[in-house]
Every structure is written in structure tokens, then in C-alpha cells.
Amino acid sequence: MIWILGASGYIGEALVAEARRQKLPFRPVARHELDYADFRTLVTALSKDKPDFVINAGGFTGKPNVDACEKFKAETIAGNVTLALTVAQACDVAGTRLGTVSSGCIYTGAKIQRQDGSWAVEDRLTEPLISELLEKRSDRVCGFSEEDDPNFTFEHNNCSFYSGTKAVAESALRGFPDFYVWRLRIPFDEYDGPRNYLTKVQCYPRVYQNWNSLTHRGDFGRAVLAFATGKVSGGIYNMTNPGYVSTREVVEEIRKRLKPGWCPNFWSGDDEFYRFGAGTPRSNCLLDVNKSRQAHVALRPLAGALEDSFARWQKK
Ligand SMILES: NC(=O)c1ccc[n+]([C@@H]2O[C@H](COP(=O)([O-])OP(=O)(O)OC[C@H]3O[C@@H](n4cnc5c(N)ncnc54)[C@H](OP(=O)(O)O)[C@@H]3O)[C@@H](O)[C@H]2O)c1
To answer: Is the pLDDT of residue 316 over 90?
Structure first.
């Protein structure tokens, strides 16, 4: 039996859909029926019902976007740090396997190979020379691996409050090496809706150009359930679709596939976006997925997952 905590959320509902599709025994768990944020309540329930695996898809992301986390700091800490640790400690005590849904938003930028062959972190992917390499899909560009220390954190003093709490939680979860931590980034799929990145891009009054790894929500669900039912080693896993994309490229695809003639306005650059369009710094980054590939739990390549989502687009 697999328990899915936070099953009512955007990511949780994809996990539920996948468990249902695979006819796996699962229980969607919501705080109002079992307060899994309370250590004693959760340990008692785990010890009694003995699920084989717990997926923690609970968290506080901020609505309509991460700017809200700057205002609701206590809720952000409770949802992202306290909850993640409470669930990990309860699973540890009860002897239950656990996977926690985390985020790649604890990084900014990517790793770029210099002319002398050495690699360095470049935290602004919108710099013209970097963008040129990204556009060419150059071999001199590489995403952050699970071995790389997060660089969009409270310690670096450059992050949103949301990202800071996700990094704190991850750092604490390293104390439970048998448990999984799955980092996803910017979820999308074929279902039009306010949480889907492909819908969001169509709704922004002005679009912000940058480069990112993304995660197809259904692919993520399939991979997470493969972890839950398989024998992959514990630890942190980057769970984005292999590849990366720019907002301009996504806009082009939307124009081609969904909205011919659509011509959105873009912010002129980072300065204008951060002056008028965003309240708190945004993570824009590339993740390396070799570890999940080697563990045979990799998602589909991003280009194909995007194409498939546009081909099967279901308008709300
Ligand atoms: N959506 C994204 O863009 C994105 C990107 C990267 C990573 N993630 C991560 O994925 C996880 C799930 O995100 P999501 O987008 O599915 O979030 P969501 O739609 O807001 O749902 C999260 C669920 O968490 C549960 N929850 C538990 N404690 C909570 C608290 N203190 N405050 C608010 N909700 C709480 C709630 O379910 P019940 O109350 O019903 O139990 C809620 O439905 C989070 O850890 C998030 O950081 C999300």
C-alpha cells in the first residue's frame, strides 16, 4: 500500500492518477482526515496501518506564485521545512520507506565550460554569450547534478523565501539517506489549467525570457511510482525531462501548435522584469539527469514531452 500525502495538490493529483492507472493499492491522504503534519498522529497511523511506502507531496508553494511565500513565511516554513522533517522522522521511527517531492529551484543558472576547458557556474543564463551556447545546445553547457551544492539558498543570500525553505529541507533530509528526494521543476502537461506552465506562459501579461529544465507531470508520476515499487538506491534525484528550453522557444511552439497569430509582449530583460514583474528572485536553472538515467527512472526527453503535450492539448 502506498500513501500519498498532499494528494489534493497539483503534483499529488498526478500521482493519484498514475497509481489509479497502474491499479496500484494506494491511499490519498489529506490533512483534514489524517493530520500528517503532526508527528504523533502520523507515527501512530503508520505503525497501525503499515503502508509499504509514503510519498510526501505536501508543501506550500504560494498562490498565485512564489511571491506569496514572502508574505506567508510561517506557512512556507511549516509546509516546506517542518512538514518534510516531521514526515521523515515519523517514517524513520515507523520503519516505512519514504520519498519526498522537492524542487530544483534551489539552483540558479547552469555549468558552462570555459575556453580553457574548465567548468564554472554561470548564474545568469540570459547573458548574450551564454544564451548563444544554450540556443545551439552546445556541449559546453551542463546542468547541476545531485552532487552540486545548491546555489540559490539563504546562505547565498540571493533566493526567494520559498527556494530558501526548500534548500533547508533538502539539507536536513540528507540525514535520512535511505529515503528519496525527488526534485522537479516547472511542471507542465497536456491539461490546460492555471498550474500548468504551458497555460501560465499564455496568460502572463508580459513574458519573461529565460532558460529552464522542466518536468512533465505525468512522467514524474510514473517515475515516482517506479521508485515506490522498485529497488532504486535512496538519495536525491533530479527528476526533470532530459533537455532544456527557453521561454521564447515555448512561445514559438504555442504559436505554431495552439495559437497562430499570438504575439505576446516580452519584458525587455532581467532588469525590467525584476523592477515591475516579480516581487522576489526567481530560480532559472538547468538540471543534469544522469543519475536518474543510470537508475532507469529517467523521464522522456523534454522536446518529445512538449510536442506530445501540444498534440494532446485539452483546453479547459
Ligand atoms: N507546482 C510546482 O510548480 C512545483 C514545482 C517544484 C516543486 N514542487 C513541490 O511539489 C510539492 C507539491 O506542490 P504542489 O504544486 O502540488 O502544491 P499544492 O498544489 O499547493 O498542494 C500541496 C498540498 O500540500 C498539502 N499540505 C500539507 N501541508 C501544507 C501546508 N502547511 N500548507 C499548504 N499545503 C499543505 C495540502 O494538501 P492537504 O491539506 O489536502 O493534505 C496541499 O493540497 C511541494 O513540495 C512543492 O514545493 C512544486
So the answer is: no
Atom of ligand 1 nearest to the CA of 11: 16
In 3D, which of 308, 311, 289 has the Cα closest to residue 299?
289
Distance 244 CA to ligand 1 centre (A): 24
Q: Is the CB of 221 under 6 A from ligand 1?
A: no
pLDDT at site 262: 95
- Using one digit for the tens of pLDDT, what is the confidence trace for 80-90? 999 999 999 99
Task: Give the span between the Cα atoms of 12 and 31, in whole angstroms.
Answer: 13
Sign of the four-CA dihedral 151, 200, 210, 252: positive
Q: Which residue has the cell 497509481?
A: 19
Closest CA to 151 of 171, 131, 165, 167: 167
* Mean pLDDT score across all residues of the chain: 97
Task: Write down the H helix ranges in the chain.
Answer: 10-21, 39-49, 67-71, 73-77, 83-94, 128-135, 161-173, 197-203, 217-229, 247-257, 270-272, 290-294, 302-311
Residues in the chain: 316
Q: Give 196 Cα–ligand 1 centroid separation in angstroms.
A: 14
Average pLDDT, integer, range 96-103: 98
257 lines ligand 1 (CB under 6 A): no
- pLDDT given at position 12: 98
The answer to pTM > 0.90 is yes
DSSP state of 316: -
Look at domain 2-311 and name its CATH class: alpha beta
Q: Give the distance (Å) from ligand 1 centre to CA of residue 221.
A: 15
80 alpha carbon – ligand 1 mean position (Å): 8
Ligand 1 atom at minimal distance to the Cα of residue 30: 41
Q: Is the dihedral of CA 162, 62, 299, 313 positive or negative?
A: negative
Residue 82 CB–ligand 1 contact under 6 Å: no
Distance 116 CA to ligand 1 centre (A): 43
The domain locations on the chain are: 2-311
